[in-house]
Amino acid sequence: MKNLKKKRRIQIISIAFVALATATILIGFAMKDGINFFKSPTQVVENTPNPNEVFRIGGLVEEGSLLRGVGETISFNVTDGNESVSVKFTGILPDLFEENQGMVAMGKFSDGVFYASE
């Protein structure tokens, strides 16, 4: 009787462990695309991404670099203190967007310019 209870307890613990491991793996795969960190300008300059790769870049908007173009086109430089990358964006800027403030943009890097889509 004791041996049967011990076997049953080991089976339940084993099944619970396998279920927990499976759930952890499934959550990891589900979140893989949802976790979206950003690259610094230094990382972009040192390891130039593929022109078709969509990624996020983050840093400070460089002072004196903000230029408003035709229509809703805006260009500015983003820096991390070491390197600087030119950014072009067409659209409406967020209310808190200013020079010397942190920013994160999503888009593609091509010909030395980051083309932000958001």
Main attributes?
2 helices, OB fold (Dihydrolipoamide Acetyltransferase, E2P), single chain, 32% strand, alpha+beta, 5-stranded mixed barrel, 31% helix, 118 residues, 2 domains
Give an overview of the whole structure.
31% of the residues lie in helices and 32% in strands. With 118 residues, it is an alpha+beta fold. It has two domains: 1-35; 38-116, Beta Barrel (OB fold (Dihydrolipoamide Acetyltransferase, E2P)), CATH 2.40.50.140. The chain has a five-stranded mixed barrel. It is rod-shaped and about 85 Å long.
List the helices and strands and how they pair.
Layout: H1 2-32, E1 38-39, H2 41-46, E2 55-61, E3 67-68, E4 73-79, E5 84-90, E6 102-110, E7 113-116
Parallel strand pairs: 1-2, 5-7
Antiparallel strand pairs: 2-4, 2-6, 3-4, 4-5, 6-7
Oligomer: single chain
| Largest sheet entry | 5 strands, mixed, barrel
Average of the residue pLDDT scores: 85
Number of strands: 7
User: How many angstroms separate the termini?
Assistant: 66 Å
Derived structural class: alpha+beta
Q: For this structure, what is the CATH class of the largest domain?
A: Mainly Beta
Q: Under CATH, the topology of the largest domain is which?
A: OB fold (Dihydrolipoamide Acetyltransferase, E2P)
Spell out the CATH superfamily of the largest domain: Nucleic acid-binding proteins
The total number of structural domains is: 2
Outline the low-pLDDT stretches: none
- What sequence of helices (H) and strands (E) makes up the elements? HEHEEEEEE
